[in-house]
Amino acid sequence: MRTGFITFFSILVAGSSFAQTKDSLAEKLLLYQLPIGAWAKQLNDGKAVNYNLPIDENLLKKIKSTGDDHATIDNNATTREINILIKAYKLTKNKAYLSAAEKGIKYLLKMQYENGGFPQYYPNKAIYRKQITYNDNAMINALTVLYNVSESKNDFDAVDSALKLKSKTALKKGIECILKNQILQNGIPTIWADQYDEMTLKPAKARAFEPVSLASGESVGIVKFLMM
Questions:
Q1: For a 10 Å CB count at each end of the chain, is N or C smaller?
Q2: Roughly what angle, to the nearest 10 degrees, separates helices 161-181 and 95-111?
Q3: How much is the pTM?
Q4: Which residues are catalytic?
Q5: Tens digit of pLDDT per residue, the chain (228 long)?
């Protein structure tokens, strides 16, 4: 009986240890990650990504058929997943989560323009997707991740040192772009527009219902970021 109890106890301990290396949400993020390293905000059927849905055979086919043209930082996509995976790695020490997060960080570095700006989508350059985008805090979310990486903050200390150095350079370029994008009125710096032409750095319109405009909400996020 004693031997049986010890064996049963050992199985329980081993099972508990295994469970600690897995995170159900993080496991889903691994499935949803696109080959380029980013995540989509919607699948190729046009429906928004919903991590609450159970993964069945039909959904898995849709996930696998969604290509890199859907890779984006719009609607918190990619930056949200990177943050979740870093937290999951901190708790579980599952290296697959860290590896996926680092692949996402590499995507952010790859998508950044030489002038420091970030497009809404990459590599998809159709219509407004290639514009430097502050709308919905897209660029600021990306720069916040890179700030945390470069400063080893908010559990990003585990990230590869080479990525930290690259993130520091990207962060500097991003801040320089923000300063260039600030709108002057009568020579006085004010706030920022939603989108900018990626070549001229001039404010630009996006969809028909998104004309050139100053964005008070996004400008609050930019100011808070600069104050860090």
A1: N
A2: 40
A3: 0.90
A4: 75, 207
A5: 444 433 333 433 444 444 468 999 999 999 999 999 999 999 999 999 999 999 999 999 999 999 999 999 999 999 999 999 999 999 999 999 999 999 999 999 999 999 999 999 999 999 999 999 999 999 999 999 999 999 999 999 999 999 999 999 999 999 999 999 999 999 999 999 999 999 999 999 998 888 999 999 999 999 999 999
